[in-house]
Amino acid sequence: MGARGISSLMVEGGAKLAESFLEAGLVDEIALFIGSTEVGAGGLPSPLTPSNVSSEFRVGRVLYLDADQLHLFSRG
Q: What is the mean pLDDT of residues 13-20?
């Protein structure tokens, strides 16, 4: 991708895709949305929470969007 001039990529997918990019060290930023409503019967737990983001990442900002939150992290 770099040879084609692409220096940024946004990855949206499920937990397995996100985990594979994280494990490969290909993630520089994380935008973690936390909604106020449950998804599905009994809710679906997120595999990533502000408390278990790798120590390689530092929290940049937390934005409060009504009852929801957006946590922004960057590597290093």
A: 82
